[in-house]
Design goal:
This protein has one domain: TIM Barrel, CATH 3.20.20. It is built from twelve helices and 14 strands. Strands 1, 2, 3, 6, 7, 10, 13 and 14 form an eight-stranded parallel sheet that branches. Strands 4-5 form a two-stranded antiparallel ribbon. The protein has a two-stranded antiparallel ribbon with strand order 8-9. Helix 5 links the parallel strand 6 and strand 7. The two termini are about 15 Å apart. The structure holds zinc ion. Zinc ion binds next to loops.
């Protein structure tokens, strides 16, 4: 039985509004499309739209914003023209964004689940038609919440998405615990951490509690791997990798744990005490610890994110773990969603690593095929699940 991998990509500026569209979005997206095309693969870009709508409000007062807006439009048109899949991604903090002295002042709530039904409606009514107009007749059928935020409470978001033709959600990723200035969520305990399921209307993390509570969309989790499991795999492969690569891998795997956050916090405190000034010249409204990593309250498993700072050998181990997990799972629908953030692909090394990973999967796993989200939805009747 074939296992399908969907390479997704959350296409956006940084969560606090910093960065340029030309550098963080257009350039790496074009490079990534070139790379995927060289393998005959189409991927899915989860395009964040509220950022672009904020840019639209300032095109007449700021030349740099206008050029960012245009670069965004041009790139999305190119994605569609080249046969890549464009789907919906929403960071609610952009809804009423204000541009102040060149910095974006964003809402302090980064989780869509923290907004009212009216606010959710307003966001989707603005974002979906804007994207539809650019991408038609290409269909917008899937969603990923900004910062993975999808509740609970999930009902209002699910209802409003389904009403607008969206049938799939990719917001669940096992292991995330956020407790920061901008978002709190807990995805440590999930009913189906790795494979597609019909979720509960009120709690996207759960199977439906009653027949009435079956949500009319399919949840397809993004892949992640427990840190201890990955560390074990890295150690097992030690003779093959060589010690320095394994050590780099282990350090990377420690990232996202509370211990790592605490060490980072101590280092920053010492640095600011020595230098006597703050880390950056950002205005106070730019959130510094949105998720709670700096305070040490957040943690995650290792998310399968192609832009993570991990050596190739670790990505290879992760792919092997995920593919074996799919093979051993009784579910007849074997779909692995991998994540990426174009904004973090900034050197040839980053792209080479992705190429090596695809090459590894092609050569080692003959029963695995790559699809974009819409390709897979067209091929299989996903909604029958
Ligand atoms: Zn995002």
């Amino acid at each position: 039985m074939t296992t399908y991998i969907i390479l997704t990509d959350d296409w956006e500026l940084r969560g606090n509004g910093t960065g340029r569209v030309e550098d963080l979005q257009r350039k790496p997206a074009i490079q990534l499309m070139n790379l995927y095309d060289s393998f005959g693969i189409k991927s899915t870009f989860n395009v964040e739209v509220l950022q672009q709508l904020a840019f639209e409000r300032y095109v007449d007062v700021d030349e740099a914003i206008r050029s960012g807006r245009d670069a965004w439009l041009e790139t999305v048109r190119l994605m569609v023209a080249r046969g890549f899949d464009v789907q919906l991604h929403v960071h609610p903090q952009w809804m009423k964004a204000e541009l102040i002295d060149g910095w974006w002042k964003l809402d302090r709530r980064w989780n869509l689940a923290d907004y009212s039904v009216e606010e959710i409606r307003r966001m989707l009514d603005a974002a979906i038609p804007y994207l539809d107009k650019l991408t038609a007749p290409h269909r917008i059928i899937s969603f990923r919440g900004g910062s993975w935020g999808m509740g609970p409470p999930s009902r209002a978001i699910v209802e409003e998405l389904v009403r607008r033709g969206i049938r799939y959600d990719l917001s669940i990723v096992k292991g995330n615990l956020y407790d920061g200035e901008a978002i709190q969520l807990d995805y440590r305990e999930l009913d189906s951490p790795f494979f597609p399921y019909r979720p509960d209307y009120d709690d996207i993390r759960r199977f439906p509690r009653t027949p009435e509570n079956v949500a009319p969309l399919l949840e397809i989790p993004t892949q992640s791997i427990e840190r201890s499991l990955l560390a074990k795999k890295i150690l097992e492969g030690l003779p093959g990798h060589g010690p320095s690569e394994a050590l780099r891998g282990m350090i990377s795997v420690l990232r996202g744990t509370r211990l790592y956050s605490r060490i980072g916090k101590m280092a920053r405190n010492i640095r600011s005490r020595v230098s006597g000034k703050k880390d950056a010249k950002q205005p106070d409204f730019v959130i510094r610890d949105p998720f709670g990593f700096q305070s040490g309250r957040a943690m995650t498993d290792v998310i399968f994110d192609l832009s993570s700072d991990l050596p190739f050998s670790v990505f290879r181990d992760m792919a092997d773990i995920c593919i074996a997990r799919a093979a051993n799972d009784p579910s007849p629908l074997k779909v692995l969603v991998f994540e990426n953030h174009t904004k973090d692909l900034q050197t040839p090394l980053h792209f080479n690593r992705i190429a090596k990973l695809i090459d590894h999967i092609h050569t080692t796993h003959s029963n695995v095929e790559f699809r974009s989200f819409v390709q897979l939805a067209d091929q299989l009747d996903l909604n029958a699940w």
